[in-house]
Amino acid sequence: MFDLQELYQEVVLDHNRRPRNFKRPDYVNRTAEGFNPLCGDQVNVYLNVEDDVITDVGFEGVGCAISKASTSMMTESVKGRTTAEAEEIFSTFRAMVTGKADDASDVELLGDLEVFQGVSQYPARIKCATLSWHALQAALDSSEETVATE
Fold first, then answer.
1. pTM of the entire predicted model
2. Which phi and psi angles does 129 have, rounded to 5°?
3. Domain-by-domain residue ranges, the chain?
């Protein structure tokens, strides 16, 4: 049986090699760009939001394995969700990776994203794991500024 660290490594490698939703959808009505100047990660997040539901999502960019895997899993977790649900998932994810999660019930909302729990032990990697999430938030807010992790 895998422990959480082994599962983390396997999931990150899988999503890094074969990222889900790595595309610009045919129709988008919200976009945002994120940039991590410390390591050079760059991501563009594309959303189609209709009646407050994220009907399609995609991303393009370059980055480390953690950044790409987190973005890939983020797109899977928010597609088909309301914007409020996506914001709640982001808030819970951010609390988990920064070591500030309140309780296990919050983490249950994350599903497979829970494998990123160990990132909290590596402060420099928190920015890699959350970059696309901040870009997602900017897209939901229709912000036109590039999100930076600094």
1. 0.92
2. -70, -25
3. 4-148
